[in-house]
Design a protein that fits this description.
homodimer; mainly beta; 3-stranded antiparallel beta sheet; 0% helix; globular
């Protein structure tokens, strides 16, 4: 486990306030696969995934492939992933796009105590341990942590 | 961090298949608050939260309270929480309610490699570090891991 890199993306902006992180985490997450997208940096990523965006791939680790059984019967799935480049200690933040300071829980920014993103995507195809989906907006190489069927959206 | 308790809830059912969990986790989660509900056991919990269900409380740890700034401007929020009683090693599972075996990623069951739940709730009130919400379905005492505004549902 590594800390978020100290890049310009992670510098404090006006109005931003950091807290002291606890000395230890309370539970552990397994990375269960990898997301492949066309975007190499955070600046390249769209602000929000779109149903007419490019097809991206979710590659599941072999250990978890049987857990995909029956997933093809769902048209829309929820994807949880770990935003590994984001700092975790801000309570107030000022998104670059708006310049308006708000609490971290009032924003869907990657910067939050637990950098877990949740996206709803269209499931286009399942090929062995690889899903092809539309609607993601994350960096290439992002670690996957969960897949769930979207409520009530069965084929 | 403790393992899931070895209760009858966690015994294997017909058709269920477990994998060997990795030796170590890849990232750590902070518990940032606690969810208070009327339900003391998993058997007591409703299958799915409802907008006409009881008001439940989300109590944020003091360290993170300033991160609630502006959250009251959102009517619907997404709540991520840690299902601390669920086992994590099943790839195929047979929910008690249906008796039908499916892959863990084709179900919204608590049993999954990373026991993270995602619920959309109605935000009824914010009182200091306590949110009152409708729509949860988890056990009393469940650890909170994130709050996010729901896409586009601003007051």
């Amino acid at each position: 486990m590594t800390d978020a890199p100290d890049t310009a993306d992670n510098a404090l902006r006006p109005g931003e306030v950091a807290t002291r992180l606890p000395a230890a985490t309370d539970a552990g997450v397994y990375f269960i696969g990898t997301i492949r997208t066309p975007w190499r940096t955070r600046a390249d990523c769209p602000k929000r995934g779109s149903a007419d965006g490019p097809i991206c791939e979710i590659v599941i680790d072999p250990r978890w492939r049987d857990a995909l059984t029956d997933i093809a019967s769902h048209r829309r799935i929820q994807v949880l992933y770990w935003m590994h480049e984001a700092r975790r200690d801000l309570v107030l933040q000022t998104p670059h796009r708006t310049g308006r300071t708000a609490g971290s829980f009032a924003l869907r920014s990657p910067v939050r105590p637990n950098p877990i993103a949740s996206s709803l995507v269209e499931l286009v195809a399942v090929d062995g341990g690889t899903l092809r989906v539309r609607g993601l907006d994350c960096i290439d190489g992002t670690p996957l942590i969960d897949l769930k069927p979207d409520h009530g959206a069965h084929r």
